[in-house]
User: Which sequence fits this backbone?
């Protein structure tokens, strides 16, 4: 948890840097597009297609810069993540079983993240896709809907194109917030995985650990506390902005030469985040677009189910579960684990009803 907090702080700093890059890029891209528009006497389709290609060239530089920054950021996260994992594996240095470190220089780490798919895609591909899906798409939309076609209205056309470009950049900027969060999590997970693989003699598997709050999504909450063998279980991060981590399951204290019993039942710290609105409902911000939700309440529970039982109706409504699932869970007609199919994908309400009826 303490390390996750450090990651969040790091994320905030990385975000500031990333967004500053975007704000510089926006001015540059708009300047370039304007310069190009100056050379255009009419807005026929061929001309506009050429503009699209040109935009692609203009954004290539910024995409490369962002890709480099994401890789750098991932490498920076990886080192403390490995050190933290080593400390956990050695039980703060008490263990008699040696923990072996992954020896990668910062340059090697950067190269590793640049050449390893995170969430199924290489960093550069992510950046390209986010730009293509936004700046280019907005421009294409403006061109294809005919707003900017025709030989007259050059001024109007120009404004429409500028607006489309600006809109696209703003969307890409928003997406960058999600990408930054996701890459920090992915780098953390990759670094831990490398350490786990390196220390197979100590590690038996891992436990899926969510952030333990009401923002945890329906895909992850049912996995909280579930144990997997190394290399098994769903990919982590499981979705954009996923904050879950893998907690290693190690040899017992005595097996590690520490003369101590295992800790009794472990209690997780669970928190409720948000703000109480005038109507008593909890207001939870979408953290994908930046910022943080304040902690309202801290409680301890051994399982996600136990924690859900301790929540007030308004707190329950602030979770991502939705009223139907909450009711089914409250009535005991389904359990949290039923929310996911055996392949860990999401079950529909209809499927859940079938399960409830069969129980
Ligand atoms: Zn998650």
Assistant:
């Amino acid at each position: 948890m303490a390390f996750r907090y450090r990651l969040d702080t790091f994320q905030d700093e990385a975000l500031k840097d990333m967004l500053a890059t975007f704000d510089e890029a926006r001015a540059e891209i708009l300047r370039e597009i304007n310069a190009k528009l100056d050379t255009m006497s009419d807005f026929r389709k061929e001309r506009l297609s050429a503009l699209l290609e040109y935009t692609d060239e203009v954004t290539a530089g910024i995409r490369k810069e962002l890709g480099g920054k994401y890789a750098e950021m991932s490498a920076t996260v990886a080192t403390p993540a490995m050190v933290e994992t080593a400390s956990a594996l050695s039980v703060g240095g008490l263990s008699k079983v040696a923990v072996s470190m992954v020896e990668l220089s910062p340059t090697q780490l950067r190269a590793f993240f640049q050449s390893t798919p995170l969430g199924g895609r290489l960093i550069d591909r992510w950046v390209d896709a986010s730009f293509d899906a936004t700046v280019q798409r907005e421009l294409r939309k403006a061109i294809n809907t005919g707003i900017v076609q025709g030989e007259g209205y050059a001024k109007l056309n120009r404004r429409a194109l500028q607006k489309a470009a600006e809109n696209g950049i703003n969307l890409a900027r928003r997406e960058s917030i999600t990408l930054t969060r996701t890459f920090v999590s992915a780098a953390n997970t990759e670094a831990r995985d490398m350490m786990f693989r390196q220390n197979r003699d100590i590690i038996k598997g891992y436990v899926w650990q969510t952030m333990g709050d009401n923002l945890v999504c329906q895909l992850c909450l049912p996995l909280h506390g579930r144990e997997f063998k190394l290399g098994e279980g769903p990919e982590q991060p499981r979705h954009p902005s996923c904050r879950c981590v893998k907690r290693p399951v190690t040899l017992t204290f005595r097996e590690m030469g520490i003369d101590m019993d295992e800790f009794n039942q472990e209690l997780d710290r669970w928190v409720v985040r948000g703000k109480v609105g005038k109507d008593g409902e909890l207001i939870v911000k979408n953290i994908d677009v930046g910022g943080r939700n304040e902690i309202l309440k801290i409680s301890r529970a051994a399982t996600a189910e136990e924690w859900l039982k301790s929540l007030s109706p308004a707190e329950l409504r602030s979770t991502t579960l939705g009223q139907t699932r909450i009711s089914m869970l409250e009535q005991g007609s389904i359990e949290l684990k039923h929310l996911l199919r055996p392949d860990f994908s999401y079950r529909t309400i209809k499927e859940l009803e079938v399960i409830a009826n069969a129980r």
